[in-house]
Design goal:
The protein is of the alpha+beta class and about 250 residues long. The protein contains five helices and 15 strands. Strands 1-2-3-6-5-4 form a six-stranded antiparallel β-barrel. Strands 7, 8, 9, 10 and 11 form a five-stranded antiparallel β-sheet that branches. Helix 3 runs antiparallel to helix 4 and helix 4 packs across helix 5. The longest helix is centred in the last third of the chain and has 21 residues. The two termini are about 25 Å apart.
Length: about 250
């Protein structure tokens, strides 16, 4: 990687070879990286300009790539992200304190199987710009049903990767839990905490359509999956993880 890297759709495309960061509409030389970012940029340019970004000395800068030819990028429409927008990029999605078994007899995750101990539970921390999503687990913050979340997040990922507005609900369906509603509106995801569909639990009026960026949320999901796999591998339960989630498009 290079300090002058730039991104499209959260994927690194390449880096500018000029000494200073681009800040005005002009043609700039660059070196591409072989990978998803450059491929997606080329595909997008077949339909029109591609909105890209870089993080430089002046903060997060967005710009349009109008054309790309012979190692040259034609750039325009530069804009510096506001402090509010940068806050939307700050998304944390983490798991810890994993266990299986029952609420009264919690077992180490190495005991996970496809029978009586098939439910993986633990602590799920979900925060946007430092604001914590309220309690998710039925019997406490460390009792979130991670099976449900890992099964539902691929659908959230599809929603974020698309171009259309839409909605998806993650609902554990247990008394004492809350449903989390993801609504895509353009480049933002609006997150609400509501009542589960089939049980009598309260929603949370303090979380009506809290925004975050689609890119930040997608990156957080990818990190969550990698982190969970790593923790289960350390616990000797990676085979269970592969059996359950290897084919999920997270």
């Amino acid at each position: 990687m290079n300090e002058h890297d730039f991104e499209y759709q959260r994927h690194v495309v390449g880096y500018f070879t000029c000494e200073d960061w681009p800040v005005v509409p002009e043609t700039y030389a660059y070196e591409p990286y072989r990978g998803t970012g450059h491929h997606e940029l080329q595909s997008r340019l077949e339909r029109g300009p591609a909105r890209c970004r870089y993080r430089g000395p002046r903060g997060l800068i967005y710009f349009d790539v109008v054309s790309c030819q012979d190692g040259q990028l034609e750039l325009e429409n530069f804009a510096r992200a506001s402090a509010e927008h940068e806050a939307l990029e700050d998304v944390v999605l983490e798991v810890s304190d994993l266990w299986t078994g029952s609420y009264r007899a919690r077992l180490h995750p190495c005991r996970l199987d496809n029978g009586q101990n098939s439910q993986l539970r633990g602590r799920l921390r979900f925060a946007i710009a430092g604001r914590e999503l309220p309690r998710l687990g039925q019997f406490g913050d460390d009792a979130v049903c991670l099976n449900t979340w890992m099964a539902e997040l691929p659908a959230v990922s599809v929603l974020l990767a698309g171009e259309d507005d839409g909605e998806h609900v993650v609902d554990e369906g247990e008394r004492g839990t809350r449903a989390v509603v993801f609504r895509r509106r353009g480049s933002r995801v609006l997150i609400s905490v509501g009542r589960p569909q089939f049980v009598d639990s309260a929603g949370n009026d303090a979380w009506p359509n809290v925004p975050c960026s689609t890119g930040a949320r997608a990156q957080a999901i990818a990190k969550l999956r990698a982190s969970l796999r790593g923790q289960l591998e350390a616990a000797g339960a990676v085979a269970w993880f592969r059996d359950r989630f290897a084919n999920e498009a997270l």
